[in-house]
Each structure stands twice: as structure tokens, then as C-alpha cells.
Amino acid sequence: MKHGARGVSEESVLGKAYDARLMRWLWGWVRPHRHLVGLSIVLFVAVSGVQLVQPYLVMVAIDRYMLRGNVAGLNLIALLFLAAILGEFLFRSLEIYVMERTGQAVILDLRRALFAHLQRLPARFFDRNPVGRLVTRVTTDVESLNEVFASGVVTVAGDLVKLLGIIGVMLWLDTRLALVTFTVVPVMLALSLFFRVRMRDAYRRMRLCLARINATLHEALAGMHLVQLFNRQDRQYAEFEELNRAHLAADTGSVIYDSLFSAVIEWVGTLSVALIIWYGGREIISGAITFGVLVAFIEYTQRFFQPIRELSTKYTVMQAAMASSERLVALMAEQPEAGARTDLPASITGVTSSARGELTFENVHFHYQEDEPVLNGVSFTVEAGRKVALVGFTGAGKTTISKLLVRLYEPTAGRILLDGVDIRTLEPRNLRRRMGVVLQDSFLFRGTIAANITLDDPAITRRRMEEAACAVQADRFIRDLSGGYDHQVQSRGSNLSTGQKQLLAFARALAFDPEILILDEATSSVDPVTERRIQSALAKLTRGRTSLIIAHRLSTIVSADRILVLHQGLVHEDGTHAQLLARDDLYARLYRLQAGRESRK
Ligand SMILES: Nc1ncnc2c1ncn2[C@@H]1O[C@H](COP(=O)(O)OP(=O)(O)OP(=O)(O)O)[C@@H](O)[C@H]1O
Ligand SMILES: [Mg+2]
With pLDDT > 90 as the criterion, what percentage of the chain qualifies? Predict the structure, then answer.
């Protein structure tokens, strides 16, 4: 498979229109809706039947009734013809409806499954795959599978049968005239082949451009503030413009071939009509065929070329669908986040069973990228109910430690224990339920303030939610918002200040009442009043709870029971504030630097 270290493959290849492995995969999705597929095939047969009978009726009308002056018979045929076209209309619209329904039903299932799968993928996967690309998977790639149904690829076998049917009827009506008419078929096939290859290349280029446009657009929109601040609009516009031009070029190529192809096929069709009139006319004169047969032939050739024209379109649709399936299969093959492992010894001896919320790191090693170690054997214990501060230079690996604790990433070596139990043996769901994490950059969803605190957890009552907000003193600013707790938060919380977002994140953590609190403090300094509020909120949050606080604020650090200094992937120092000051090492230095800054404020 083409994914791997670089993530789910790019939209580059567009090869086979049929791949047994991918077809089996696709069939797996179609299977639950096979009754719909069956129905569309039945309808297709019905449509083809009433279509094929029409030229025949015309022939009968001309030969048997018109030329013999039989008005009653002509009326009957007219009625039959009307019935045939009404039938065609009815069956055709039903067929289209059923085919589109099938497509929608399949992609609904597929989208659901994809989204559920994405939700289970580990953090590493999202490090590797840009958001724009994943959005393309769930939208464009799924849509190209829908095309398979909408364009009627399902009935492609039916198209072939229909072609054979027309060939059969024509041969039966008049073999020689049929053979003369078919002389244009090789010309048509050669032209189709010629254009198909070129159209495919143009289409492939177009897809690639579109994927790049999506990715660029996503990044440009996400970073719009920055672009505006640094006046990078022109530069970014130029970049976007270049991609757009490439897309236009590919699109133009595709359109040119497409229109040429249609025109050429029309032309070949007309050529065959000319052949029929020329050769058939001679046969009429010599009395070999009737006038009705000639007209029927002209009608049949029209119906003969239509499926041929559509076949090449369907071929392209299938190629695109196969390419999309390939990427979707690769995405679905991504390993979901590990669950609870059963192959490890769960409980470690020598730990008091009454302990609730004791955290231990045992010689933990970790890296995101090979050769770039972040943690080189970190060991420490946070006793139940204690508040430990984790400090260190930027990039020391503090946030990484909090991610390891909730199993967003797994240590490459060593163990993390919760109450003496290796956390790898716990279900991530259960583990995370016990931990309240306040992330370094708070994230809010679109929705109300209340929903952002409770995350729509029905276990959290309105009252408990409000109490949590009061406890961390977030209620003051919430009350000032229009609508209070029902105030609408915009995407990513863009209509709230950083401090407000942090207070909400605290309220959320408290509302969930976790056993263990992991708090990644934002570095941003807030005003002294808010600072005091956050401090008292913190005191509330950490009371009686095991807390690991990644601290940047002096006040937080000093009030911790113990302080860990992370440096060069190791716990460099471990002790109380007083002990570490007495050691006069890294911590003392950090502290003096910060204290100096604080006093200047
Ligand atoms: N998703 C990631 N993929 C690759 N490398 C990463 C990833 N996240 C962090 N790193 C790297 O790991 C190292 C530790 O990062 P981490 O976020 O843990 O630092 P930190 O101590 O929290 O820093 P800060 O005080 O700035 O928040 C950094 O060198 C960083 O570049
Ligand atoms: Mg950090």
C-alpha cells in the first residue's frame, strides 16, 4: 500500500478502472443495499426494452400501415408508441432515482464509518496527516464513489447487453446493411481510445491541482490573522493564483478533449446515418428492404452510439472511483488507537491498594521522531492527593509528559503506572475518565458556554455546571455575556479572550470532577485580578486531588507540594521549593529569573 511513514497517499495515481481487491471492498459497502442495486437493474432492463421497441414500432407503422393506407392500424401503433415513451419516461426516472438513492445510501454508511474510524486513530496519525487531506478523503473521495452509482456504472454490464441486443436486431432485420453500418465501429473505438488516454491524463492533473488547492486554502484560512498581520496577502495570493492557473490549464485540457470527443462521436454517428441512407437507399430501390427497415436502422444506430459514448465516461468514473477506493482502503487500514493490553502484567506488587490516584513514571523513554529523543528515562512519583509542579525550559517535554499520561502517545520504553497499574492495561476511555486535562491551548467548540463546560455530558447537571463555573470564578464574565451560559461561542472560541477561555477550561475540568488533574498552564500573563482568580480557582481544583501542574506561574510553583525540573529528557531536580532553592541549581536559577521579572511588574 502507498501509505506509510508519510501518511495516507496523495491523489496522484489514476490507473486501473477495475481492481478485484478494491471491487471486493466496494462490494462490502454495496452489499447491504443490494436490493436497491437489483431494483435498478430490473428498471434498466425495462428501460432498455421500451427503448428498443420504439424503432421497431416505427418500422411497422411505415411498412404495414402508412404505405398501405391503414389509418386504424396507424392509430394503434401511435398508441403503442405513446405507451412505450411513457414507459420509458416512468422507468427511466425511477431508475435514476433508485441509482442515486443507492449511491447516497452507500456513501452515508461510508462517511459514518470513516468518521468513526478517524475518531479512533491515534495522535500520531494526525501528526502525519494534514487536516485538508483528511477532509478531502471524507468529502471528495467518498463523492467519487457516489459517482459510480449516479453515472450508472452499476448497469455497465446492462449497457453491453443492450449493445448486443441492438446489434442482434439490426443483423436480424438486414445482415448486409447492418455490416455496412458497423464499419464505422472500429473508427469509433480507435477515436475513443485516443481520447480516453488524453482525457485521463488531464483529469489526473486536475485532481492533483484540486487537492493542492484544498490544502493551501485550508492553511491560508486557518492562518489568515497571521497573513494579514505580516502583510503576506500578495505572496499568498500569488501562490494560490499559480495553483489556480495550473488547475485551469488541466481543466481546459480536459474540456477540449471532452468537447472534441463528443463532437467526433456525433460526427461518426452522422456518418453512419449517411452510410445507411446511401447503401440502404440502393437496397430499397432493388427491393431488398422496405422503407420502414431503413428508418428503423437510423433509429437503432442513434441508440447504438449513445451507450458507447457513455461507456468511455463511465470508464473515467471507474478509474477515479478505484483511485479513491485505494486511498480510502489505506485510510481504513490505519491502526486505531491501542485499547487495553492484556499481554502485560497488570498489577505491580508493593503498592498499597488503598492509594487512589497515585502516578508513577518508571524510566520512561519517548520520541516523536526517530533520533530525536524527547524523554530519556524519566522517573518520578506523584503520591495520591499531592500537587506536583513540573517546570523546565520550553521544549523540555512537559506537555509530552501530559500526553503520555492520557495515552495520546505511548512511551517507547518504560512504564507509567496509575495506582500501581500499568496504564497500557487500561481502556483509554476509562483512563481518561479518571483524568482531567486542561490543555496548554484551550480549545472551544461552536455552541453555548454551557455546552462547552459539560461537553454535552448528560451526567453533568445544569446546577453542577454552574457550580463548577462559580468555583473557578468564571461565572463573573459569563454573566456579563449576552445570554449568559447560553451565549454562543464561535468556532475555536474566537469571540472570547485567552484568559476567559482558560477559565472555561478550568470549569470544564472541575465539572467532570476527575480523580487526577493534569494542567498545562498557559504562559500568557493575565491581569493581576484574573491571576488571583486563577490562583484561587487552581486551589479549588487541586484540593484533595492528585495534580500534576505544568507550571509557568511563580505563584503556582511555590504553592506546590513538590517541584520536578525536567531537563534534557530527565528529571534533573526533584524536591520542595525550599530544598531546590538550597541546591542552587537549575530551579534556583529559573526561580530567580522569574522572581526578578515578577518584582519589576
Ligand atoms: N507532535 C509532535 N511531533 C513531533 N515533535 C513534537 C511534537 N510535539 C512536540 N514535539 C517536540 O517534542 C519536544 C517537547 O515538546 P513539548 O511540547 O513536550 O515541550 P514543552 O516542555 O511542553 O514546551 P513548552 O514549555 O513550550 O510548552 C519539542 O522539541 C517539540 O519540538
Ligand atoms: Mg508545553
Answer: 34
pLDDT tens string 73-109: 999 999 999 999 999 999 999 999 999 999 999 999 9
| Shared domain check, 371 and 326 | no
Domain-located, residue 4: no
CA of 397 to the centre of ligand 1 (A): 6
User: Band of the pLDDT at 377, cuts 50, 70, 90?
Assistant: very high
Q: Which of 398, 523, 572 to mutate to test the pocket of ligand 1 (most atoms within 8 A of CB)?
A: 398
273-330 confidence digits (pLDDT tens): 999 999 999 999 998 889 999 999 998 888 888 877 777 778 778 888 888 888 899 9
Do 321 and 394 lie in one domain? The reply is: no
Ligand 1 atom nearest residue 397's Cα: 18
Task: Look at residue 337 and tell me if it is in a domain.
Answer: no
Question: Which of helix, strand or coil describes residue 489?
Answer: strand
* Whether 418 and 496 share a structural domain: yes
**Which of 127, 367, 374 should be mutated for ligand 1, with most atoms under 8 A from CB?**
374
**Which bound ligand lies closest to the C-alpha atom of 404?**
1
Closest ligand 1 atom, residue 398 Cα: 21
Residues 414 and 480 in one domain: yes
pLDDT value at 111 more than 90: yes
**pLDDT of res. 350:** 45
Q: Give the range of the structural domain holding residue 196, as residue numbers without chain letter.
A: 20-332
Closest C-alpha to ligand 1, atom 2: 368
- Domain for residue 350, yes or no? no
Q: What is the DSSP string of 116-180?
A: HHHHHS-HHHHHHS-HHHHHHIIIIIHHHHHHHHHTTGGGHHHHHHHHHHHHHHHHHH-HHHHHH
Query: 341-372 burial, b if ≥16 CB within 10 A, otherwise e?
Result: eeeeeeeeeeeeeeeebbbbbbebebbeeeee
Q: Does residue 193 sit within a domain?
A: yes
Residue 456, sorted as left (phi over 0), alpha (psi -120 to 50) or beta, turns out to be left
pTM of the complete model beyond 0.90: no
